[in-house]
Amino acid sequence: IGALVRYLCGNTSEKAILQVVGIKVIEKIKNDDTSIFTKCYHLILSDGKHTFSSCMLDTKINKLIEMNSFKENSIIRIDRVMVNSIDKTEKNMLVLYELEVIQSDSERIGDLVALSLTDITNNGGDTNFLETTNDNNTTIKKSSFSTTIYRKPTLGVGHFF
Predict the structure, then answer these.
(1) Which domains, and CATH codes, for the chain?
(2) SUPFAM superfamilies attached here (predicted)?
(3) pLDDT tens per residue, range 148-160
(4) Alpha helices of the chain — where are they, by DSSP H?
């Protein structure tokens, strides 16, 4: 299994190496004041096996994109991530809180295939949050989190590199 599947199944303690294959800027109005905007960055990430498009950069680290530290095709290491079930339709989102840029300029790696969420089922029903700081102190903020994964045989451990 690739790192993206492991994250979506709740294994957020792993410091995965991923490639940013897409970045989209979303501007949101803050507090109904049309003169104040906040930027959100939605990312498409690849683990070399699959891509996942429901990823968001925490606004506190927007400066990494704004200072051109990373861009499309950059290689990053995820140091802190949260998996958020955004509604009762079992849609998940990865929120990146801390990351390190391994290589800013890179070529696209692998034959990318969009991650099929039919292989991953969140049986919790309610909104669930998982957060970690990668020191084996995983915090489960809602106890109804339950995941079923249908596995296919893989070669190796599934790391990007």
Answers:
(1) 3-149 (2.40.50.140)
(2) Nucleic acid-binding proteins
(3) 333 333 334 444 4
(4) 3-8, 63-66
